[in-house]
Amino acid sequence: MPANIYYSLLLRIMLRFFVKIIISAFAVMISAYLLPGVTVDDFSSALIVAAVLALLNAILKPLLVIFTIPITIFTLGLFLLVINAVIILIADRLVGDFAVAGFWWALLFSIILSVITSIFEGINKSYENKDQNKNG
C-alpha cells in the first residue's frame, strides 16, 4: 500500500480518538453539573479528566479486571462498577481541577458518565453513517 493511505488511516484514527475525548469531556461536564458531589472547574479541566480516564481505562482497568475475576464472577459483573469508581477516584487524585466527594459519588458519576457518553457516541455514530452514505 502507498504511504499516503497509511497516513490517511492514521489521521482518521487520531481524529476519532480526539472526537471521543471531546465527547467524554462534555459528558464529564454534564455529569459534574448533575451531581453535587463532583466538581470540575472548566472545560479544559474536563478535557484533561477525559484524557486521564481514557489512559487509566486503557492501562490500569484491564489489570484490575484480571486481578478481580473471581469476585467479578461471584457478583455477576457488578464489581466492575466498583473498578470504575476506583478509576474515577484515581483520576480525582491526578487532576487538580476535578474533585469527587467520595466513593459513592464516584460510583454514581461513573454510571451517569457511561450513560451520557453512550448517548453522545450514538449521536456521533449516526452522523458518521450519514456522512459515509453521502460520500459514497
Brief overview, please?
Helix content is 82%, strand content 4%.
Helix amount: over 70%
Question: β content, as a range?
Answer: under 5%
How many structural domains in the coordinates? 1
Structural class, from helix and strand content? mainly alpha
Name the shape in a single word.
Answer: globular
How many helices? Answer: 5
What is the number of strand segments?
2
Our Rg estimate from Cα atoms comes to 17 Å
Low-pLDDT parts are none
Give the averaged pLDDT, no decimals.
91
Termini separation (Å)?
Answer: 22 Å
Secondary-structure element sequence? Answer: HEHHHEH
Strand order of the largest sheet: 1-2
The main β sheet shows up as: 2 strands, antiparallel
Characterization of this structure:
The longest helix is centred in the C-terminal third of the chain and has 33 residues, at 103-135. Helix 2 packs across helix 4 and helix 4 (79-94) crosses helix 5 (103-135). A two-stranded antiparallel ribbon has the order 1-2. The chain has helices at 3-34, 43-67, 69-74, 79-94, 103-135; strands spanning 38-40, 98-100. The chain is built from five helices and two strands. The protein is mainly alpha-helical and 136 residues long. The mean pLDDT is 91. Helix content is 82%, strand content 4%. It has one domain.
